[in-house]
């Protein structure tokens, strides 16, 4: 049960954080201005990683752990779905978000910014779905 609670905490943290990033933070990239954007983006990247990496790692590891040791009464299909959603957030981060951030690291580009915002909806949806999944699993486990 402790692993499920850790998984839920990480998934819920990332869901809330990423909704903020998606709706507030990423749209504000366009408002920084070309003269300050490179510094702003560099600082964004440096400060974001230590906040999100531990939570993403906990979410992924605990989701995987649950595949082999799930609490009694929990749905195995939801356990698998949760793991798939956690993996999806890593894939979307590595394949969609990081390359766009790398491009923006060279300077603000409206098209790249739009692609980042669009691609990031994959992560927003995956984290939101995982938040629901772990909520149902906690309910099933009696937590």
From TrEMBL:
The keyword Transmembrane applies. The chain crosses the membrane at residues 80-98, 118-138. Keywords: Membrane, Transmembrane, Transmembrane helix. It comes from the Bacteria. The keyword Membrane applies. This is DUF1772 domain-containing protein.
């Amino acid at each position: 049960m402790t692993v499920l609670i850790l998984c839920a905490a990480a998934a819920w943290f990332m869901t809330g954080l990423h909704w903020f990033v998606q709706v507030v933070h990423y749209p504000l990239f366009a408002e920084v201005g070309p003269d300050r954007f490179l510094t702003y983006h560099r600082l964004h990247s440096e400060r974001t990683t230590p906040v999100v990496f531990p939570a993403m790692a906990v979410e992924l590891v605990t989701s995987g752990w649950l595949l082999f040791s799930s609490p009694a009464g929990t749905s195995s299909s939801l356990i698998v779905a949760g793991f798939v959603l956690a993996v999806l957030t890593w894939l979307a981060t590595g394949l969609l978000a990081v390359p766009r951030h790398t491009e923006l690291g060279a300077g603000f580009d409206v098209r790249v910014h739009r692609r980042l915002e669009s691609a990031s909806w994959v992560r927003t949806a995956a984290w939101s779905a995982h938040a629901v999944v772990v909520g149902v699993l906690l309910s099933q486990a009696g937590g």
